[in-house]
Each structure stands twice: as structure tokens, then as C-alpha cells.
Amino acid sequence: xxxxxxxxxxxxLGPQLFQLYINDLPNITKLQCYLxxxxxxxxxxGPNLETITHELNNELxxxxxxxxxxxxxxNTSKSNFMIVPPKPNSSPTTTIEIxxxxxxxxxxxxxxxxxxxxxLNFQKHVKTILPKLNKGLHALITIKNTLTYKxxxxxxxxxxxxxxxxxxxxxxPKLNTxxxxxxxxxxxxxxxxxxxxxxxxxxxxxxxxxxxLTIDKLGTHNCINLAGKHxxxxxxDIFQEIxxxxxxSRNPLKFPQNCKKSDTIYNxxxxxxxxxxxxxxxxxxxxxxxxxxxxxxxxDSDIQKCVKKCKQCLLYNEEKTARYMMS
Length: 327
Hints:
The chain has helices at 14-22, 49-69, 123-143, 149-165, 168-171, 177-195, 204-209, 215-231, 238-242, 264-275, 284-297, 299-309, 311-314, 318-326, and strands at 32-36, 39-43, 80-81, 97-98, 101-102, 104-105, 108-111, 114-117. The radius of gyration is 24 Å and the shape is globular. By secondary structure, it is mostly helical.
């Protein structure tokens, strides 16, 4: 009798063997499959919900046969599905079955660390990272008079900025003004704690001195980095189907047909079109570094406005801040 064993938690080779074991799953179904370790996501679209439900249930039967033939088991209790309707205010429901068991419908799913909700406004993702940001803020409050500037900046980047910049091109442009302002207030309060300045100190100069990008600039920087990687063919092949590259054109990245301003692809290409002549596009690293320099320099206009009008900024002591940053 033969035994089929594939462990993912014993050795560094385990995950690779598991990937090889299930790597042909996309070949046996018409559905779009996205595999990451033992996490599998399936995507299907159609003209109406009835057609999608019928096709999906039929394809899941094929997938179940594949699992049975390869001695794999599917935990239905840990599986769910989400419907993204064309009208965000609607809440359609349907029934999906796997192995004669009903799969639970969810309003949001976590995909590679980002909470994607069925309205695609990423409010659930913000609710997920807000407690983490507040913990980072509390940590900075605790050590604001204890650690040096460099140590506090490291904590800021680790506990606050890292959560904001992860996947920024996907979710930050989708936020409404209220949510963006909420995150901006936390970020500004945190950078004031890093520099140990008053609660009403303007932050443009602080963001520039620490080479830190604000919420909106994080989204722009992330979009440009993605477009630059696509220009250098460092993204998955599926991007080649979505965004065509014309090397003979002055603007080699072309907007896809029927691309709307609310689409993520539009945000990526729009940011690239706006900044491509201001940055060095030679390599991926040069794109990343030069783009950040350009965005950081944009603080200068805000700083000049503050110096002319703001009493707090007139009292700002540049030499004192420089000594503090060197401590």
C-alpha cells in the first residue's frame, strides 16, 4: 500500500514540495486560481449571479475530484466566498457547495494581508490596521522622552509606517476623505512624537527631515514602483495582458480600454504618467529612490507657506532640530 505524505511545517523543503504537489490545480479548471503556499483563491465573473453560481458549482465538482485523486482534503469550515456586485449598495446572496457542504458567504476576505470587502472601499482593512497603528502610537508616547531620534524613527517605521505602505497602491486611493484624514492624524501625531515637538507643530518640515511619505504620497510612490517594475518586466505575466507596453511610444504604458478613474490600474498609470519625466527610469532601484526624492521635495511648497504665515514655524529652530537628530 502506498502512502502520500507532504508536510509544510517540518522543513524548509516542505512548502516547495507542497507547491509542486498542487501546482497543476489551475490546469484542471476554467476558473482563475491564485495559489500562495496552502492558501488558494478562486476568481470568477459573469453577466449575472445565476450564471456565475451554476458555473462555479460545476467547476467545484471538478476541483473536488482533483482533491480526491491527489489524496487532498478541503476544510469547508475554513472556506468562504464573497460576491462583488456591480452596484456597491446591493447585497446579493447565493448558495455555493463543496462536497455537498454549503460554503459560508462573507462580506470580506483577507488576501495576502489585505482585507478586501465586497464594496471595494477597504474600510474593513482600515479597521484591521487601526488597532496596530494605535499600539505603535502608544509605544512612541511611552518612550518619547527616553530613546534617541533614530531609535524612535525606527519604531515609527516598524509599527506605523509599515502598515500604511503595505499594498498602498491598492487600498489608499480607494479611501474616502474621512478615513484618509483619520489615518493622516495618526501619522502626523506619530511623527511629532518622533521629533518630540508640540502637538500643534506643522508636520511638513518633519516629514521632509525624516524622509517620510504621507498617506497620499505613499499611494503615489507605490503606484509608480509597480509601473516601473512592469516597465522592466518584473511583474507576473498577467500584467502584460492588462497593461500593454509600446517601447516605440513616448509614453510606453498604455491605458487599457474601458479603464475607469476608479480602477487601480488607472491610478497606477496616472501616477506614472505624471511623474515619469521627473524620475530616473534606468533601473527599478533608481525609479524607487528618485521617485521618493521627488515626492519628498514636494514638501518645500508647504514649508514655505508655513514660514510666511505660521508663528509656530517662525519659532522653529533648525540647528536645535539638527542636533536632536544626531543624538
